[in-house]
Design brief:
alpha/beta, 35% strand, 164 residues, 3-stranded antiparallel beta sheet, single chain
Length: 164
């Protein structure tokens, strides 16, 4: 499995149900990596997408602990056991975990690769991603050159996990 995330310099990922920054090249990178793939997210992440609708041209799997929650155009799983069983139907290379905080935490140990857009700025964040730079089993495999959008500097990093 893979995950894809944009983090600030403190590994913040969101605040009040929104991304911390909107960088067009990051959005294009996300689209390029996930089109035609399986995307896995929590209910709040789904509801934060445009129109609260599943992403087009992808298989959308949503985790919600509410057994009554339904999402047209998405597969809904109500617990981690059901979710992991559902994910076994797909090639691990085609699965992308896209958030939020709890889904990342739950599925990080199963991921081989993490595509991280590192934003070199600090934002007010109420949701965070684990700091992969401090994780023994994660290491940077690729790093883009430093990029800038408006006054925001960022890089694309690919981390690999030595465990799964």
């Amino acid at each position: 499995m893979n995950l894809i995330v944009a983090v600030d310099q403190n590994w913040g990922i969101g605040c009040d149900g929104k991304l911390l920054a909107s960088i067009p090249e990051d959005m294009a990178f996300f689209r390029q990596k996930t089109l035609g793939k399986v995307v896995v997210m929590g209910r709040a992440t789904l509801q934060s997408l445009p129109g609260g609708a599943p992403l087009k041209n992808r298989t959308n799997i949503v985790m919600s602990q509410n057994p009554l929650f339904k999402a047209s155009g998405a597969i809904v799983c109500n617990n981690s056991e059901t979710l992991l069983k559902q994910l076994k139907q797909y090639s691990a290379d085609n699965i992308f975990i896209i958030g939020g905080q709890e889904i990342y935490k739950l599925l990080l140990p199963f991921c081989k690769r993490a595509y991280v857009t590192k934003i070199y700025k600090s934002f007010s964040a109420d949701k965070h991603f684990p700091n992969l730079d401090l994780a023994e089993n994660w290491s940077v495999a690729e790093k883009s050159h430093l990029k800038t959008y408006n006054d925001t500097e960022y890089t694309f990093l690919t981390y690999t996990n030595s465990l799964p």
